[in-house]
Amino acid sequence: MKHPPQDQLALFAGGEAGWFESWSVRRHLVACPICRKRAADFSQDRQTVRNLSVELPPEVEWNRLADEMAGNIRVGLAAGEAIAAFDRPSDDRTSGVAGARTSWLRWNAGWAIAAASAVFAAAFWLNLPNPQAEHLLTALRAIRVDRAGKLVQPAAPAADEVVVEASGSSIQVRENGGSLALLHPRSDGLTISVNMQGSAGARYIDSDTGQVTINRVYYAQQ
Amino acid sequence: MRSSRLLALVAAGAASIYAAILPKIDLPKDSPVAVIGADYGDSTETARGGAVVVDLHASLSLRNSSGRHIRGITLLVRSQEVTPGSKGSVTLTSLDVAPGEAFPVRMDIRLLRPVTSLGGPLELGLDGVLFDDLSFYGPDNLQSRHTLTVYEIEARRDRRYYKALLAEGGPARLRQEVLASLSRQVDRPDMEVQMTRASRATNLEPERPVQFALLHLPDSPVEPTEGMAKIAGNEARTPRLEVHNKSDRAVRYLEIGWLVKDGRGRQFMAGTVPATLNLPPGEKAQVLKETLKFPQLGGGPLSIDSMTAFVSNVEFSDGKMWVPSRADLGDPRLQSVLAPSPEEQRLVQLYRKKGLTALVDELKKF
Asked: Rg of chain B's alpha carbons, rounded to an integer?
């Protein structure tokens, strides 16, 4: 009996193997108690690491990476749209027989590229480990919501708009394309407060000094 | 020889880049605190796309150069070039810094500016210091005097309350109350908020008139008597709220707290609205003028269902202040949504980290 390699078993145990790999390892495990035991050990190790990872510094987190990924994809899409608009051919080039032939060739090439893209996308998706697939989906969904949002919200943010935002990791004011953020550690006791005349604050206890710290950002008028 | 010159050049370049991101600290000459040390650790400046990100991790060491104990301090953070009108602040409260004693102030600041903008240094300044006799020093541009005094009065109230519990029922009773506070803090809804200062109305939803619910705190010197607004989405337009001064002293400033229930039935403390006024004893006055724009929660749109107003603190014309008593805070409508005072939060955290004995020792200090 041929056993799957260790790395494949580890990926399977962590739910990170691709669809085909998972199917093949699962089939093998039904008949092989040794590999079943190894896979169980990998799962246990993974759980231990996950417990330890709770102690990781707050900056190491998938949500932030996903945000950055979404940002990069968003920038890529915007750049693609800009380039497409720049390269679009004028109508007179498609007139006449030569134009029709060019058009027919272009359609064929288009279909070929579309088919190849579909095959590539399917293969990529089937081999993408589950957690990464989820992150990619989340990122794409965020972009879709952003783009749909632009359609239903006709008014773009005004140039003079000032935005104050508070979250679990920072409190910031955005203005004129720049931002000033005061960062705080993620904490159970974090308290966000809002003064509706133009300021928001985040209060936490500094774990090293035991001091009560209140970070606050203010709109322009104060 | 050449390589050592090159190394020196690189070092000088790195030093000048590092120096460019360091803040400019500007304290008044007669300031009651002095900077005795500053560590900027792994502060960095990096280019990200079309922007430059400055990550400043500052750990300042300040010394109390006055003759009184410091209870609270607010430092101003400003970047004139990046956010010309807006600013930030870092406040430490519930302190007990004796004369001559040093204390740390840590701040982590991220400044993002377009590559095209000039990057002037971050400016750190002093907005105010509150002493144990409730006297104040500082320019007070951010209303630090009022805020720090409210925190200090709340701290005294809560220390008194915990000390009384300790005296009446011993450490077991104290532990019971601390655990109840801890449980309330865990159950309180998280808030992620976004507020926009827009120069125009931001939603086109139809308006509907809503009468405010009013929460009367028995000990409050000022109480809301009636109020209403036209609600549209997260905005309360043309709001009206009348308050009555029940006390025998004139009131010059107060803050109204707002409890909001959204369309999904979630109730939360949405924010406060300050009002500067001159309200003689026994008189009534209107305190709201402009549209109240409540923050969006968790990135999603907020749809206001109902609003409840209460007076959260009052400043009399003689400078004395009133904050709700522990009995007032026992109102179930407030208890579930109102954050504990900074001092209560600190004491509870002390219990969590170091245990009951440490908390009892802390309460005995002053």
From this structure: 24
